[in-house]
Amino acid sequence: MRCSSAPGAPPKEADDGPSREPRRRAVAHCRCAGPVRLHGVADATKYYMLSPSPAAPADSAHTAVSGPSVAVGPVVIPRYLERAQIVTRGTNDEVEISEYRRWAEPLESGIAEVLADNLAAQVGSQRVAVFPWRGATARALDYRVVVVVLRFDGSPAAGSRSTCAGTSSTRPERSSC
User: Fold this and answer.
1) What's 62's DSSP letter?
2) Does pTM top 0.85 for this prediction?
3) Series of mean pLDDT values for 10-residue runs along the chain (177 residues)
4) Are 149 and 74 within one domain?
5) What is the pLDDT of residue 28?
6) Residues 6+ apart with CB under 8 A from 24
7) Do 52 and 23 sit in the same domain of this protein?
8) Pair (95, 137) in one structural domain
9) Residues 52 and 29 in one domain
10) For residue 100, which of 152, 41, 159, 151 has the smallest C-alpha distance?
11) How distant is the alpha carbon of residue 139 from its chain centre?
12) In a domain, 177, yes or no
């Protein structure tokens, strides 16, 4: 077998016996092939989150602690939206599933959080909980808002707004006797 150990080097003779021959061939093959460049593929996936309306504060630190206690949830969404990929509605009610645009959190959770933030700002209460709630929070609730999303449309384009159509029911959690 003849191969250069480096480009431009004189050929070397390999006759050290049969046991070293396969290894020498592999090493020689790698040396003769030259440098190998591996190019990584950039991840084109973008992640999105819902955000409260501009009138609602990002946190409810400026709202009253003594307002009514309200629980938001559970939020139920259509089955076709129960996925990480963003689903948009095209023409003729065609549904398009984006491969590279995804929700950063489960959509039900995002809707519940945004509703809670908006509700806290509108009601003026810091006592708004998001489903699931447990223990003392569950016993101290004044109202519960259950949401069923029927349709959720929008575009992941920057600055776009989403439209959520659904039903909700608000009911007192504690009976007043």
Assistant:
1) T
2) no
3) 47 53 50 56 89 65 68 92 90 88 94 92 87 81 90 72 75 59
4) yes
5) 45
6) 1, 14, 16
7) no
8) yes
9) no
10) 41
11) 32
12) no
> Which pLDDT score, from 0 to 100, does residue 68 have?
82
Q: d(Cα 81, Cα 47) in Å, to the nearest integer? A: 15
Task: Go through 88-108 and write b for each residue having 16 or more CB atoms within 10 A of its CB, e for each that does not.
Answer: eeeeeeeeeeeeebbbeeebb
- Assess contact for 67 and 123: CB atoms under 8 A: yes
Residue range(s) defining the domain that contains residue 136: 46-172
In this structure, is residue 106 part of a structural domain? yes
Tokens 């396969």: give the residue.
22
3-class secondary-structure state, position 163: strand
Other C-beta atoms within 10 Å of 18: how many? 6
- My answer on whether 56 and 27 are in the same domain is no
Both tokens assigned to 44: 């084109």
pLDDT recorded at residue 154: 74
Identify whether residues 68 and 127 lie together within a single domain: yes
